[in-house]
Amino acid sequence: MQQKKFRVTDEDGIHARPATALVNTANKFKSEVFAEALGKKVTMKSILGVLSFGLEPGDEITFIAEGEDEAQVIPALEEVFVKEGLGEVYE
Amino acid sequence: MSKVQGIAAAAGIAVAKAFRMEEVHLTVEKRTVEQPEAELAKLDQALGKSRIEVQLLKERTLQQMGEKKAEIFESHLLILQDPELIGPVRDKISSERVNADFALKEVADMFISMFENNKSAYLRERAADMRDVTKRVLAHIQGVKITDLSAIQEEVVLVAIDLTPSETAQLDRNYVKGFATNIGGRTSHSAIMARSLEIPAVVGTKNILDEVKDGDLLILDGLEGVVLINPNAETVAAYREKQQRYEEQKVEWAKLKDKPTVSADGHHVELAANIGTPNDVTGVLDNGGEAVGLYRTEFLYMGRDKLPSEKDQFNAYRTVLEKMEGKPVVVRTLDIGGDKELSYLKLPKEMNPFLGYRAVRLCLDQQDIFRTQLRALLRASVYGNLRIMFPMIATLDEFRQSKAILLEEKEKLKQEDIPVSDEIQLGIMVEIPSTAVLADQFAKEVDFFSIGTNDLIQYTMAADRMNERVSYLYQPYNPAIIRLVKIVIDAAHKEGRWVGMCGEMAGDSTAIPILLGLGLDEFSMSATSILPARTQISKLSQADMQKLAEQALQKSTAEEVVQLVEQFAGTQQ
After folding, report:
1. Which residues of B are catalytic?
2. Can you tell me the mean pLDDT for B505-522?
3. Which of B3, B206, B344, B540 is the most buried (most CB within 10 A)?
4. For residue B519, what are the contacts with CB-CB under 8 A and spacing of at least 6?
5. Which residues form the signal peptide (chain A) (predicted)?
6. At B95, is the pLDDT very low, low, confident or very high (cuts 50, 70, 90)?
């Protein structure tokens, strides 16, 4: 299992457009991909799930990948997360 | 053959089959089914069909309107394959043995209410996407046809009760050759959009949707405001000829595209265009516009679910300024309220929205909205020749307050080391009679006026321009209006200011001779009216028009003014 925590900084939170990009990215992999935030866990392959978090600036979100290609999942999501200006890696 | 008369809203002629646009209401009932497998298959088929449609919509939007407008359909596609949606629906069908449409509606409604009850305004608005997608799938399960404007794939004339601005924006002019509506007038938004898309349109027919069946052959004459239903071959031939003559005339006009606008006796005026979005700039340049005389920024705020950010607005303004390459761009600050509502601002319904809380009245009250727009404009100002004007100014104090806020934001930006142009002209719309009457006082403080005739006429005549029953009072040629215009122009010129006009009147061939005679400096109109207007002005002598305007000012009715201009035009030929 691979996981990494991020913090949302985008003033809009995670909106439909970047959420779409994240879900499209998760869909490319065979692994199970989850996101955990605000005490909930949803599959990253569901846009409704990701949107339903209603994340706001300052909120934390953890991406979790489990499966044969899990090693590539988190870096791919990280790239989208940072490129879309959603936020930063949470140390 | 029958004939329906309406209002000519956008020039041109279309001959094509009718496509009726009707609002569909779907009812979903719970049924117990013997074979859940059959329902699961129905669900899969409906999802598959919906995906194909949305994919098509996405590609077409991408091609015609760019990546940004297409993004929404990308999320719709993901919803159509969302495991959190489809999983529970399938479970429900199998375990509860219910019909597919019922199961889908139950699960979708849960998401819709989850979005609706969210504390984030943005997520509350996502409920609309969910409804949109659900409706598409439900319709397929039930085998009901829903109207999908951007999926029209053959040449049609669209017939509808009315079209919203966002519906009009979806129209693909390769297929939608024209449209006719029951309601609306020349200055309603669908009409304005039709002119900027260059789709012939007839509006305000009252009953066209009742008169026309799907597939009827229609001739739509956007020059005369007439729709002919199932015309005979002879009539079709005659209109094809008229259509061709119109196209030829357009070629003739095109020759004046890169020429300045000069009257027969050498007087120069500026012909500018009214635009709603950065995409419209291409049309302005293609039609030889010398400036943007009115950039209606409302469209940035419409068709979305929350206020546009400073960044979004900055990008739009910068794009327009850059594309115009140093030619003047007059941006009107937010003019909502009245007939233009924004759902996310949750403005209370008013008895008289046109006389109510709108435009600068709203901006001065909800200053955060106003300040965001002004900052975006100021930041964009270094990318071209920006002019800013405030709409619906009724008192000098409103202008002074607006100006003070602008200067405050400018100062803040300078403190942040963000470059701002020092050459921005600051003006006002003259559309309220009190401001026209007091123009001499305003002229001491503003850099320019832009006369908004659509509203000026409605406020002067006390006649709602959306109300067809009083449409006879919408009289641009009424001597009262002409006198008000004269007051404004004279007052401005006395202080060395320039005056534009950005209402429909500025592009009207009957009004142009009088306006030229009154000394109007800038005429801002639909892009497609620019070349005909330039042709017309090139044949007029400004000195003669001054005399004509003098006579018009002494007339007592609108009819007399029209007669005067027609008589004069007769002697010219």
Report:
1. 189, 502
2. 96
3. B540
4. B489, B490, B493, B499, B546
5. none
6. very high
Q: Calculate ∠ Cα B123-B128-B132, nearest 5°.
A: 140
Q: How many CB atoms lie within 10 A of CB B425?
A: 16
CB pairs under 8 A between A and B: 54
Of B144-158, B182-196, B509-523, B553-567, least confident by mean pLDDT is B182-196
Q: Which residues contact B129 (CB under 8 A, 6 or more apart)?
A: A16, B72, B75, B76, B79
Q: Interface pTM (ipTM) of the complex?
A: 0.89
Q: Which domains does chain B have, with CATH numbers?
A: 2-22+149-251 (3.50.30.10), 36-142 (1.10.274.10), 255-572 (3.20.20.60)
- B78 interfacial to chain A (CB closer than 8 Å): yes
Residue B532's CB: how many other CB atoms inside 10 A?
20
Please tell me the distance from the alpha carbon of residue B149 to that of residue B165, in angstroms, as a whole number: 13
* B132 in reach of chain A (CB within 8 A): no
Handedness of CA A64, A68, A72, A77 (dihedral sign): negative
Contact between B205 and B227 under an 8 Å Cβ cutoff? The reply is yes
Partner residue opposite A23 with nearest CB, options B78, B111, B114 = B78
Report pLDDT digits (tens) over B225-274: 999 999 999 999 999 999 999 988 888 887 888 899 999 999 999 999 99
Token readout for B335 is 């003019």
Report which listed range, B16-30, B180-194, B365-379, is most confident.
B365-379
Residue B207: what pLDDT? 93
Mean pLDDT of B372-400: 98
Pick the closest to residue B448 from B432, B430, B434, B435 (CA basis): B430
Give residue B338's pLDDT. 65
Is B58 in the A-facing interface, judged by CB distances under 8 Å?
no
To the nearest whole Å, the CA of B264 is away from the closest chain A CA by 55
Q: How does pLDDT run across B300-351, given as a tens digit for each residue? A: 898 777 899 999 899 999 999 999 999 999 999 999 876 667 888 888 888 8
Is A15 an annotated catalytic residue? yes
Query: What are the Cα distances from residue B329, in Å, to A20, A79, B402?
Result: 36, 39, 19
Interval A8-27: pLDDT, tens: 888 777 888 889 999 999 99
Place of tokens 């409302």: B298
Residue B185 has pLDDT above 90, yes or no: no
A30 has a chain B CB within 8 A of its CB:
no
Check A12 against B84: CB less than 8 A apart: no
Tell whether residue B322 is among the known ligand binding residues: no
User: Would you put residue A54 in left (φ > 0), alpha (ψ -120 to 50) or beta?
Assistant: left
* CA nearest neighbour of B202 among B216, B217, B215, B183: B183
Interface of B with A in 275-334 (CB under 8 A): 309
Q: A41 - beta bridge partners? A: A36
pLDDT beneath 70, residues of chain A? 91
Residue listed under structure tokens 């889908």: B104
B332 among annotated binding-site residues: yes
Is B114's CB within 8 Å of A52's CB? yes
CB contact under 8 A, A54 and B118: yes
Q: How far is CA B131 from CA B26, B44, B104, B125, B569, in A?
A: 12, 18, 11, 10, 56
Tell me which residue in A11, A13, A46 faces B120 most closely, judged by beta carbons: A13
Q: What's the CA gap between B128 and B166, in Å, rounded?
A: 14
